[in-house]
Amino acid sequence: MLKLRRAVVVEAGPSELAGEDVSGSGERTERTEQHLRIELVGAGGEVAGDVSPAGATHASRVRPAIADPTLVGRAEAGDEVIVNVQALDLGLGSGGFDIVHANLTRGLAGGGARGASVMKLNYTSLQHAVAPVEDERLELPLRRPVAVLALHGQLAAVTWAFARAVPGARLGYVQTAGGALPGSHSHTVRTLRERGLLAGHLTAGAAFGGEAEAITTAGALHHGLRALRWDAAVCGPGPGIVGSSSPLGHGGMHALDSAHVALALGCRTLVVARMSSGDERARHRGISHHTLTVLDLLLEPVTVALPARTRSSLPLDAERPARIARHDWRTAFVDLPGFAACGLASATMGRGLTEDPIFFAAALAGGGALAEALVAPHEDERGESAR
Fold first, then answer.
1. Which of 67, 86, 204, 309 has its CA 20 to 30 A from that of 43?
2. pLDDT given at position 61
3. d(C-alpha 92, C-alpha 241), whole Å
């Protein structure tokens, strides 16, 4: 059940405006994230102390919180709010804050969007209407390259390597289900947009909080590659992977759906391998079981890039299913020192680049392969050269 608490806003930060319209509406989109400091209030009116992931009560009674202005409106200091405290109390890796569920002082109208007609978070008490991007005529095949991610932590390295290889090319990001947090909570996306490395950010399906909303991943890719004129797209979950230790019970399985969608739209499709040299869990070392399972279940072959400088040390033949040999396996030289010096996010599950170099090397290889797919001529079914 929901774990809700009453609180008072102690400090309210600003929310930001995106600098570019990616929805086609002609309007700038408010970044749906407002950082707050709140003080929990007990049932009898007394102030409750902070609870750490271990359950210990701190002397400080103030906790970090996030409000989404498009859902609950803007908050100001002194507002009385209801917050969901479960993620912070559980100590989840992506849940280091409470989430504002409702603002009792300023009302429950929320932000809203002009022309909103489709529900997101449907069938929940937080369902809200959005204006979907799916409004153009279907034009297929798209013939543009799409890289499919397993983790949000791969996004910065893929994007940086792509931009290095094809300066000026427009790369867009479609955020899918599979993550734990809204798109607006991604500091990586914000930085990539500010640096001009991403041309746009759409959230599709159950995901929300991007610069524009799509009903489906197919609709988001079509809108980005056609209407927004992206040269290529990267598709994957938002921050905070959802998962369990089971082969199929994790957010990385959305890569299977995304790859099938990209293939069906006529895109040159690349799966960015999740790899690790520092993860303590054996199932993620080398090529992760997340990637191996997706490659085993795919109905059509895709391209998979591996970092050339580390391939000799990887157990590529030990545990991979025989069916994944049908994919187009490629190697790419990567610039780990260059990425380390660029200042972009370089951490996965608390490990930095020096603790888990293969994770970032694999993502850099994926970005390089995505750029190669863009610049290399492509032969369609009629034998005509296409870009």
1. 67
2. 73
3. 11
Same domain membership, residue 150 and residue 124: no
Which of the four pLDDT bands, split at 50, 70 and 90, describes residue 120? confident
Query: Would the CA dihedral through 272, 278, 284, 287 be positive or negative?
Result: positive
Kindly state whether residue 217 falls inside one of the protein's structural domains. yes
Spatial distance between the Cα atoms of 339 and 229, rounded to a whole number of angstroms: 27
Sign for the CA dihedral angle at 343, 348, 349, 353 comes to negative
Cβ–Cβ under 8 Å, residues 274 and 297: no
Q: Measured between alpha carbons, how far is 118 from 194 in angstroms, rounded to an integer?
A: 29
Residues 204 and 90 in one domain: no
Domain presence at residue 195 = yes
Domain that holds residue 72: 4-130
155 and 257 co-located in one domain: yes
What pLDDT is stored for residue 287 in this prediction?
A: 87
Q: Which of 79, 88, 73, 18 is nearest to 240 (CA)?
A: 88
Please state, for a pLDDT cut of 90, what percent of the chain lies above it.
48
Q: Which of 214, 230, 229 is nearest to 172 (CA)?
A: 230
